[in-house]
């Protein structure tokens, strides 16, 4: 059971962190790609570029969903288990959109009008 709990929280964390990182890289503002992954900057909420603000909201949302889903499965309540499965699916969908589709659209220049 302990291994299952550790595996579940690891998977949920990977989804949320990877998706948030992909979002920050896809919509990275003028400061450049990996510099956007600066935890201290986001925790202090000194975000000025619009991508930083979206990143903040998305990061907190996905981590909260992952944490709640983990505890829902852990407590083994029927309705919470169902909700946990739904939240896991939601995080997977969000990961797919922000981690795969948005960066591809950014590569082909779809979002260039936002920075002008």
For the structure shown, list the relevant keywords.
single chain, 116 residues, mainly alpha
Summed over residues and divided by their number, the pLDDT gives a mean of 59
Radius of gyration: 16 Å
What structural class should be given to the helix and strand makeup?
mainly alpha
Output the number of helix runs: 4
The overall strand count is: 0
User: Which percent band covers the strand fraction?
Assistant: under 5%
Q: Structurally, how many domains make up the residues? A: 1
Distance between the termini: 52 Å
Q: Major beta sheet, specifics?
A: none
Q: What characteristic shape results from the CA principal axes?
A: elongated
How do the SSEs run, as a string of H and E? HHHH
Low-confidence stretches: 28-44
Helix content: over 70%
Give a description of the structure.
The protein is mainly alpha-helical. It has one domain (2-115). 74% of the residues lie in helices and 0% in strands. The longest helix is centred in the C-terminal third of the chain and has 30 residues, at 78-107. The chain starts with a helix and ends in a 9-residue tail after the last helix. The model is unreliable at 28-44 (pLDDT under 50). Keywords: Membrane, Signal, Transmembrane, Transmembrane helix. Residues 1-19 form the signal peptide.
How would you concisely characterize the structure shown here?
The protein is mainly α and 116 residues long. The chain is built from 4 helices and no strands.
